[in-house]
Amino acid sequence: MPRPDPDPLDDLIHAGHDPLTLRCVLLSTPYRQQAPLTMERIADAAGLLDRWRQRIADWSTHASVPMPADILEAAYRAFDRNLDVPAMLDLMHHVESDAAIAPGAKFELFVDLDRVLAVDLLRDLGGPHP
Known about the structure:
By secondary structure, this protein is mostly helical. It has six helices and no strands. α3 crosses α6 (103-117) and α4 runs antiparallel to α5. The relative contact order is 0.16.
């Protein structure tokens, strides 16, 4: 019986790459396009998740503030547009750097969106803060 083609994701996981980092790479690629699983993209995704996890841990120390409705609506509109997760990730980058958005609102927004992304952005919550 012929052996099926090897799965590049399985190979990367067996090589020690975090499956959630690989998920982030796949999510950053437009739906129905092949995701180039290069070492550079994997490293970039790992760095992004590490940064966002630390930011969430930092933001969690601030008072909770309601999520900006317009931003949350824009994120869900992106999902409705043929699963345009890359657009939603771009929106998250914007929110992260927008000083006009309160840290507590950023926390609430990222936690809410991670319910869809499922990349465990709360992983570092409650851990030591540098």
